[in-house]
Amino acid sequence: MEVAFILEKLILVVIVFTITLVIAMYSTLAERKIAGFMQDRHGPDRAGIFGLLQPLCDGGKFFFKEEIIPSGAHKPLFILGPVIAIITACISSAVIPWGQDLTINGKVISLQVASGINIGVLYMFGVIALGVYGIMLGGWASNNKFSLMGAIRAASQSISYEIGMGLSLIALLMVTGTLQLEDIVAQQSGFVNWNIWVQPLGFLIFITCAFAECNRVPFDLPECETELVGGYHTEYSSMKLGLYMFSEYINMFVSSALMAALYFGGYNFPFMYELGLSENWITIIGVIVFFLKIFGFIFFFMWIRWTLPRFRYDQLMNLGWKVLIPLAIANIVLTGVITLVKDTYF
């Protein structure tokens, strides 16, 4: 029984890891296609039909390019930086419930790698917080002032916006009463029960902080090509640069999955139990719906990149400390008052 359970989880880990890498890989193509569409030009269209082989060509380029390590760099930490970035990005999805349980030959299979963790939300925050160490180590070990400045920006930005993100989630946890992601998603069965209807302000704060945590425009100050050459990965080349870029797209995918799970019902969809389908079919459709929600958020990330200009650094800090954190605290107080009134009189 123990061997079967371990094998089941290993298979699920491989599937989730593969899907994550494929989505991250093709997000690079989607970004360039969307940019081309919004700028009234063609995106990549030479490698394969509609440019579908372009991500494979880009990956091959990263693998076979010459590896350069600056003579003044701290080599062990220079190598460790992108490794930490990609590992933390990949393991952050372990607690996300991708669908309801599947039943095959009488055996119930959970579509969550780490199921039953009663602190799933805290796990996500812990892993996200560790991700900045990869950036900091890479920037410091490069022995380059632009890299170091980008790393310092990344660290201060991460600290600032993690506070706002955490406070926005406190209000959501007050409503749901649990830290388990699978329970939060299960409570949102039915369109009217989605948390976006009871926590719209919390969602706006959360998605703004998610943009900052993923270093996406208009919060891409750690990379900021016009000021810092390339930011914390200025000195990186070959697959080490590829790992940093992959980790950014994986973080965007995981952030989209987290937002869909916390606020938009996850795998739940309207009238899912009125269709008269078997539980397995409802689970399969739910997984598809969940990924459609994720792709919608990924498109939104990309749309914003080609719509809004980059903030100045002082504007970035003012938004985090003077706007988002006070708003998040106000949202907690408002949620507490509404919950108290509801419990007292209703």
TrEMBL record:
<keyword id="KW-0830">Ubiquinone</keyword>
<dbReference type="InterPro" id="IPR001694">
    <property type="entry name" value="NADH_UbQ_OxRdtase_su1/FPO"/>
</dbReference>
<comment type="subunit">
    <text>NDH-1 is composed of 14 different subunits. Subunits NuoA, H, J, K, L, M, N constitute the membrane sector of the complex.</text>
</comment>
<keyword id="KW-1003">Cell membrane</keyword>
<feature type="transmembrane region" description="Helical">
    <location>
        <begin position="249"/>
        <end position="269"/>
    </location>
</feature>
<dbReference type="InterPro" id="IPR018086">
    <property type="entry name" value="NADH_UbQ_OxRdtase_su1_CS"/>
</dbReference>
<dbReference type="GO" id="GO:0003954">
    <property type="term" value="F:NADH dehydrogenase activity"/>
</dbReference>
<dbReference type="Pfam" id="PF00146">
    <property type="entry name" value="NADHdh"/>
</dbReference>
<feature type="transmembrane region" description="Helical">
    <location>
        <begin position="281"/>
        <end position="303"/>
    </location>
</feature>
<comment type="similarity">
    <text>Belongs to the complex I subunit 1 family.</text>
</comment>
<feature type="transmembrane region" description="Helical">
    <location>
        <begin position="159"/>
        <end position="179"/>
    </location>
</feature>
<keyword id="KW-1278">Translocase</keyword>
<keyword id="KW-0812">Transmembrane</keyword>
<dbReference type="GO" id="GO:0005886">
    <property type="term" value="C:plasma membrane"/>
</dbReference>
<keyword id="KW-0874">Quinone</keyword>
<dbReference type="GO" id="GO:0009060">
    <property type="term" value="P:aerobic respiration"/>
</dbReference>
<feature type="transmembrane region" description="Helical">
    <location>
        <begin position="116"/>
        <end position="138"/>
    </location>
</feature>
<dbReference type="GO" id="GO:0016655">
    <property type="term" value="F:oxidoreductase activity, acting on NAD(P)H, quinone or similar compound as acceptor"/>
</dbReference>
<dbReference type="GO" id="GO:0048038">
    <property type="term" value="F:quinone binding"/>
</dbReference>
<feature type="transmembrane region" description="Helical">
    <location>
        <begin position="191"/>
        <end position="212"/>
    </location>
</feature>
<feature type="transmembrane region" description="Helical">
    <location>
        <begin position="77"/>
        <end position="96"/>
    </location>
</feature>
<keyword id="KW-0472">Membrane</keyword>
<feature type="transmembrane region" description="Helical">
    <location>
        <begin position="323"/>
        <end position="341"/>
    </location>
</feature>
<protein>
    <recommendedName>
        <fullName>NADH-quinone oxidoreductase subunit H</fullName>
        <ecNumber>7.1.1.-</ecNumber>
    </recommendedName>
</protein>
<feature type="transmembrane region" description="Helical">
    <location>
        <begin position="6"/>
        <end position="29"/>
    </location>
</feature>
<keyword id="KW-1133">Transmembrane helix</keyword>
<keyword id="KW-0520">NAD</keyword>
<comment type="function">
    <text>NDH-1 shuttles electrons from NADH, via FMN and iron-sulfur (Fe-S) centers, to quinones in the respiratory chain. The immediate electron acceptor for the enzyme in this species is believed to be ubiquinone. Couples the redox reaction to proton translocation (for every two electrons transferred, four hydrogen ions are translocated across the cytoplasmic membrane), and thus conserves the redox energy in a proton gradient. This subunit may bind ubiquinone.</text>
</comment>
